[in-house]
Amino acid sequence: MYLDLFKLHELPFRLSPDPQFLYLSKQHARAKAYMESTIWFTDGFVVITGDIGAGKTTLIETFLRELQADVVVAQINQTQLSATGFLQSVLVQFGFSPFGMKKPEVLATLNQFLVEQHGNGRKVLLIIDEAQNLSNKVLEEVRMLSGVETTKEKVLRIILAGQPELNEKLNSPGLIQLTQRVRLRFHLTALNKAETAAYIDHRLEVAGSQGRRIFAEDMYPAIFRYTGGVPRLINTLCDTCLMAAYGKDQDTVNMSHFEAAVEELQWVEFASGTNQMKILEADHVLPSHIDTGQTDSGQIDSGQVVGRILLACEGKTMEERQLTPGRLVIGRTPDNDIQIDSKFISRHHCQIITQPDSCVIEDLNSTNGISVQSKRVRRHNLNDGDVVQVGQHEIMYIDERSPRVRNSPEPIGPRLRPAPEPIDTAVATAVLGGTPKES
User: Fold this and answer.
1) Residue of 35, 24, 125, 135 whose CA lies nearest to 76
2) Considering Cα of 212, then 9, then 250, then 14, what sign does the dihedral take?
3) pLDDT tens-digit readout, 322-364
4) How far apart are CA 192 and CA 200, in angstroms?
5) What is the band of 432 on the pLDDT scale with cuts at 50, 70, 90?
6) Strands (DSSP E) along 256-337, which ranges?
């Protein structure tokens, strides 16, 4: 990678929520103070919301790292659960194995645990991330848990964190009782222009820049224009800029590298209506036999199916997804477009960038990376039939623009059968061997 060229000791713009890289803007500092207040007060919930990529999870991880030893924590990140499944997950976090228990037994065990911890002088904290995905039934269970108390005080502290939809859900008529228990509610906004520049310098400093100016001064306003101050988007753009400079063997990043990064990511300015992928009109002529997905007016049809992927593990197809122009992010947590719940998958592991004339898979600085034909790659142009190893899973790409190949009676390399049939055993010879690391 580019660490040696820029004299850094670690990657400055990882997407993973590393507490040491947290930049405490005024907004983030206030949200963190609200979280800390739960340790001293037990008279209600604290709700923290923010758009995707605003830094909620990094904030939570930092808060958890600073907790005292007398705080017992249950952290729930998988929130698409039934009411009983949710209660069982909470007990698992506290060290129990409740999967043979029925709901009354789960509740009794949980209540007894909370009272015992309080009696032993410990504080118990429940943090629920991605709480916008909780059903109303589960939120009602959360409300009931908050009512567990001794003769003097309640014994469970609760933080709900999620996307803005959480506020909409809490304001619904069916959750009035829960909403009345919310003591503090704070919405985490994006960084402003000055904070965006300070955020970039902070992460470079933590990574080992030692005050050296790596990014040209005129890049900071441009980065803000294209990211809107959203931390995750800043990380993605800055990392791509560093890679562009690395590709030219230059140890400082300037506007030419920025322009190359924006072109590679296919981004438009944040104010144009999107902070994600937006495919621009192609400025080159494609072969006549390839459907560009454009209308007569020359605009790209975002619904055009360019290809599809099959996700498999241990010889079984887990999911199939069509690919249209745009970006599809794959990772361990629910905020990804495709979630792979595996310890060998990073929080945001890789992304597939689809354009009318191409499809590319790109590693997002994950622990175990991605591999094609047993070779680890950072970026790979997908061809029909390619199999990509991702942790202990395989992703096979099928090009929907190649009917001749797909309809050929002769097999072309290792193939996956459509769901629900298992993967052809020949796939095993095309993917990376060895044991991935836990992410």
Assistant:
1) 125
2) negative
3) 998 888 889 888 878 899 999 899 888 989 988 888 899 988 8
4) 12
5) very low
6) 307-313, 316-323, 326-331
146 alpha carbon, distance to own chain's centre: 29
Sign of CA dihedral 10, 12, 14, 16: positive
Which two three-digit tokens encode residue 62? 């930092």
On whether the CB atoms of residues 397 and 350 are closer than 8 A, the answer is: no
Q: Residues near 300 by Cβ (< 8 Å), separated by ≥ 6?
A: 279, 280, 281, 282, 292, 293, 294, 325, 356
Among residues 431, 434, 435, 412, the alpha carbon closest in space to that of 312 is found at: 431
Closest Cα partner for 239 from 403, 86, 11, 399? 11
Euclidean distance between CA atoms 79 and 6, whole angstroms: 40
Query: Which one-letter DSSP state was computed for residue 242?
Result: H
Q: Residues 41-55: pLDDT tens digits?
A: 776 789 999 988 899
Q: Which two tokens stand for residue 58?
A: 């990094």
What are the φ and ψ backbone dihedral angles of 393, each rounded to 5 degrees? -110, 160
d(CA 176, CA 411): 60
Residue 12 pLDDT: 96
At 393, list the tokens.
Answer: 């899973």
Q: What mean pLDDT is reported for the chain?
A: 82
Q: What band does 303 get if pLDDT is binned at 50, 70 and 90?
A: low
For residue 321, the cross-strand partners are: 309
Report CA torsion sign: 266, 267, 268, 274: positive
Provide the residue type at 243 as one letter.
M
Q: Which 8-state DSSP code applies to residue 19?
A: G
Mean pLDDT of 151-162: 85
CB–CB of 184/38 below 8 Å? no
Contact predicate 66/216, CB 8 Å: no
User: Is 414 within 8 Å of 430 (Cβ atoms)?
Assistant: yes
Residue 4 reports pLDDT greater than 50? yes
CA distances from 292 to 312, 355, 359, 406 (A): 29, 9, 13, 19
Pairing of strands 338-339, 326-331: parallel
Chain centre distance of CA 61: 14
> Strand 45-50 vs strand 156-162: parallel, antiparallel, or unpaired?
parallel
Tokens for 151, please give them.
Answer: 């003769």
